[in-house]
Design a protein that fits this description.
By secondary structure, the protein is an alpha/beta fold. It has a single domain (3-226), classed as Rossmann fold, CATH 3.40.50.720. 31% of the residues lie in helices and 19% in strands. The N and C termini lie far apart (45 Å).
Length: 239
Amino acid sequence: MDFLKYSRQMMIEGWEKEGQMKLKNSTVFIAGAGGLGSPASIYLAVAGVGKIVICDFDTVETTNLNRQILHSLTRVGINKALSAKITLSAINPDVEIIAITEKITEKNAFELIGETQIIIDCMDNFETRYILNEVAVRKNIPLVFGAIYGMQGMLSFIQPPQTPCLKCLFPEAPQKETFPVVGATAGVVGTLQALEAIKYLVGIGKLLRDKLFVWDGMKGEFKTFKAQKDPLCPVCKVK
């Protein structure tokens, strides 16, 4: 491993060579190569995560380009996961990038996620988010939830049974819509998702467990709310 490349982050207390090797030996599953998946995957790649599995069945469109910085105008019409692999491999050739071009469903999610240490939820719909949540509960691996709307975003580190699951936090999915978003909002939340994953994999810092972190970019405010476990949750309740 080229430790020189990562020398500045290895200066962080508790990180050092041992922490960098933990990242090198880690596998992260990123669901979505869009607005959130772009900054999340880029910062995980430059940090030196050993293997990144990025999954997206959709293709790049011109309207994506104000926020989905993995892609460019020259890649319109190309599958997003494949486009992501091109970008991430160029940023850090030492990271193994696995591009999955399938849509995540109840039938294939368990297999697609495979033997990863953590799931990064960068989706834009709760139908798929709930599927990821159930897989995380069944596999007993953490899920980093992130969502954005306009200049607002939210984040939580979900790790049942220690924490509430996504279904506890959002029992009902919001109505589907084409919502407004500015790229900087996705950049803030996606970067924070990457940071949560890095802290978990290296084993440092305090994670956003049992919390819903909310950012209001319009007001320039950050707020943290206590996340409550639903004792009757159909997904994570103790049987």
